Amino acid sequence: MSRHLAPTADNALASQLELAFEDNRLAAQLYGDFDQNLALIEQRLKVAAAPRGNHVLLKGAAGAVDQARRVLESLYASLEEGRAIEISDVDGVIRMIETEDSQLTLPTLERKGKVRMAQIATRKSTIVARTPAQDAYMRAMDRAELVFGVGPAGTGKTYLAVAHAASLLERGDINRIILSRPAVEAGERLGFLPGDMKEKVDPYLRPLYDALYDMMMSVNVERCITSGIIEVAPLAFMRGRTLANAVVILDEAQNTTSMQMKMFLTRLGENSKMIVTGDPTQVDLPRGEKSGLVEAVSLLDGIEGVHVSRFGDKDVVRHALVGRIVRAYEADTTRKAQEKLAEGVAR
Questions:
Q1: pLDDT for residue 111
Q2: Closest C-alpha to 256, from 233, 298, 285
Q3: What is the pLDDT of residue 199?
Q4: Three-class SS of the chain
Q5: pLDDT in tens, 168-196
Q6: Below-50 pLDDT ranges, the chain
Q7: Which of 157, 255, 149 shows the shortest CA–CA distance to 208?
């Protein structure tokens, strides 16, 4: 891939950059259907991206043009490695590069290269980090025995945890996957639901099943569940067990009590990993009951072998509206806290 830089004379802050991609077929995939990938880059980075065959001419502020170059080169490298790219991948690379640049404290003359994001590969699919927080989370799951994923809905906490577990199972690094949730949802109790215990519990665990079927062939998932290699169970079933050679995932952990969380964490056995996910802003416990997730993160953050990954509204990878909804609720919570503090001071 060759580049030709053509600075503009009328604006010292603006520049033009022409990129040439060697493979015309891959270049077409890079641009996306009806050039939708280029359109997203234009919208997000405030540049103009004009495709001409296997060439793309970028125009805009020098920093934005350089960011667009790195986005396109990173995506093209993925295509060269045989991975298809979707509009969500474009969004992910843009986020990574914007964050990388915002964290730089010193200017550099060195030309920045392609972004290499963390990946989780199973036989069915390959998951690539779409935000810096996801990247850190995925790398932490490789290194730490106990990982907390804490943040709002839609950030990929549970999905990535299940993907990581599935990849370890396929590689033979573990013998079992155990998926668990506290059976507390929006004030409801299991006793009010019809059916036997499995029928009562399955609706609470459906997001975990969905992630499994995305990562593994359905026949393999069903075989593993039948044989007990993959076990899906409510948190109450964990008491008294020692879980060895397994990845154990606790989802919706904000709805555990302190005692439940302690019970769960002390199940960790040899050659096992635990991944605990939850959103402390969506606690459905009875009023006055402290969340075991909040307490555990406070007590264990910084302990060797423990990693806490924190996600924010900028890490939401569902519909863009979800991120705006999360921000609106967070702003309202902040406002109410400030009003409460002001009332206390006034008294």
A1: 45
A2: 285
A3: 63
A4: CEEEEEECCCCCCEEEEEEECCCHHHHHHHHCHHHHHHHHHHHHHCCEEEEECCEEEEEEEHHHHHHHHHHHHHHHHHHHCCCCCCHHHHHHHHHHHHHHHHCCCCCCCCCCCCCCCCEEECCCCEEECCCHHHHHHHHHHHHCCEEEEECCCCCCHHHHHHHHHHHHHHHCCCCEEEEEECCCECCECHHHCCCCHHHHHHHHHHHHHHHHHHHCCHHHHHHHHHHCCEEEEEHHHHCCCCECCEEEEECCHHHCCHHHHHHHHCCECCCCEEEEEECCCCCCCCCCCCCHHHHHHHHHCCCCCEEEEECCHHHCCCCHHHHHHHHHHHHHHHHHHHHHHHHHHHC
A5: 999 999 999 998 888 655 444 555 555 55
A6: 1-12, 104-111, 186-188
A7: 157
Angle between helices 258-265 and 292-300 in degrees, nearest 10: 60
Q: 126: closest CA among 90, 59, 78?
A: 78
User: What are the tens digits of pLDDT across the range 36-76?
Assistant: 999 999 998 999 999 998 999 999 988 889 889 999 998 99
Query: Tokens for 123?
Result: 């036989």
Q: Name the residue type at position 134.
A: Q
Q: Both tokens of residue 170? A: 């396929």
Please state, in angstroms and rounded to a whole number, the distance separating the CA atoms of residues 285 and 291: 7
Task: Note the pLDDT of residue 106.
Answer: 38
Encoded tokens for 20:
């040439």
Cα 96 from Cα 114, distance rounded (Å): 11
Q: What angle do CA 240, 160, 104 make, to 5 degrees?
A: 125
pLDDT value at position 175? 94
Would strands 273-278 and 55-61 be described as parallel, antiparallel, or unpaired?
Answer: unpaired
The pLDDT value given to residue 160: 93
Contacts of 137 (CB under 8 A, 6+ apart): 129, 147, 149, 156, 157, 160, 309, 311
Q: Which residues contact 210 (CB under 8 A, 6 or more apart)?
A: none
